[in-house]
Amino acid sequence: MTGRVEFCGLAEAVERHVRPGDAIHVVMGHSRWSALVREVARQHWGRPSGFTLIMASLSSLGTVLVRAGCLAKVVSVYSGDSFPVFTPNPVYQAGFGAHGGVEVEHWSFLTFIQRLRAAATGVPAVVTGSVAGSSMAANAAYTEVDTPFGHLGLVAALAPDVALLHAAVADREGNLAIAPPMFEGVVGAMAARRGVVASVERVVDDLRPWSGFVRIPAHRVLAVVEAPFGAHPGGVFAGPREQALPVSGYGEDIGFWVEVREASRRDDFDDWIREWVLEPADHDAYLAKLGRERLDGLVAAATGRRPDGPVADAGEPSATERAAVWLADLLVERIAAIGADGVLAGAGLANLAAWDGVARARQAGHRVALTAELGLWGYDPAPGDPYPFSFANFGTSSMLLDTEQVLGSFVTSPTTRAIACVGAALIDRHGNINTTRTDDGTHLVGSGGANDVVTGADETLVVGTMSPRRFVAATDYITSPGERVRAVVTDLGILENADGELVLTAVAPGPEPQHERIELARSRCGWALKTADHVRDLRPVSTADVGTLRSFDPDGLFLGRRTRPHPGSEGKQQ
């Protein structure tokens, strides 16, 4: 690429630099969306543009591109909802595969990034330790080879035609500054054949005072669009207070995320898209529709933690709360047993249990760090906010990194002792986890970072409520192989890995004789569940035991005791 960077508007940037048939990479840092992607949907609505969308996490708004009819293929890691809870989305289920005609290629977070890195560094493939033993190993871009250095897994280079991203700041030359945490980093921007089209909060004369945050050089940039709040409904973190970039950051608009999720489940979803994507004449019109008060509130939300919500009433612990407490108990035990350096907590219930367990382990004197695949290491979770990727956790982290560093250099490293805590949509008798698709081909969500941490951590603890639909004899699709799954904690007991098969080793307490409680657990399992020679009773869980969990999730979004409407659902967008 040669020539000067073009400074222009959204419509011009997309018209000039996004072409039918392109492989478009939407680069994701801590911002989940951009005005540029909205403009692509707007310009290509109803057009068979044949795009290949390369995007790590489509979340709820990726459904707009599916509905637009402009996609031929998706290369992704997670295609589902993130707010208010992590769930499959019906638009992806209808649009992906044979049903809808959009081909989908699944990867883990680490292998997705590694493929882009191969392209960015000009090599045909790179070595990976992920996806071996999973169904993703059948992807054409993965192979295993014997070499003089041992048996290796390789992933092929993935080179987009053009990359779209939202950065915090650009200078007049077109250099782009982004504060960590970086999620997938900028390897996709460096890999794009033609270059990068960027929206930014602000263009400044000189970025040299913040050179540590300049991630993409001007020679890689095709166009820059100055678009304040261009990451909405995602947010922008400007950096730690003492080092912040010269721009006002803002938090995620969770209410907007919730509304698009709900709209995607209604028959009038296209009307919602028309109102929020197709009809606003430009970015200024979109911001005007959001309203100044709403935008100012997002800026205010980025400057501090979410206020603590009311803790749920003092009712008896729910089934999911009991499972979470027992997982936290086991986690404390395992942190001590292996001298864990870090615990990576997956989203949802597993995350809350890990927060509780790590806090207890630290109180007992163990030096163990909480980590999140977005790029957080050693963070303290914010009360009242159950999301591991909350901006409120950024400022409490001892290190702000990216996914490749967290997963590739720490959690899966032989020099770091790590425990993974994850959930599972489906799990079979061998501990294999499936979060990608059901046996009839129905799309779930994908791997996220689960495959990377389950295969790379020293051991994995799984949590979930027990039912024959979730606990199956065998799963047709394996997202994460079960070799390093040590235990599965449920509301009815604990299953542990014994010679490659999960067996019941502990059972929930209760007034009934133990053999009846064991039979109840066995009846909720989709295979003939074996029991250990000695099955112990788990401890009773009191209201006091769940106080910490409820302080993190006061709305009961993941704890199974919804006490008030989820954040942002009290009213429609204005």
UniProtKB/TrEMBL annotation:
Q: Which PANTHER family match?
A: ACETATE COA-TRANSFERASE YDIF, CHOLESTEROL RING-CLEAVING HYDROLASE IPDB SUBUNIT
Question: This chain belongs to which protein, by name?
Answer: Acyl CoA:acetate/3-ketoacid CoA transferase alpha subunit
Q: Which organism is it from?
A: Actinomycetospora endophytica
Note the superkingdom of the native organism.
Answer: Bacteria
Instruction: Tell me which InterPro entries the record gives.
Output: CoA_trans_fam_I, NagB/RpiA_transferase-like
Name the protein family: Belongs to the 3-oxoacid CoA-transferase subunit B family.
SMART domains under this entry?
A: CoA_trans (SM00882)
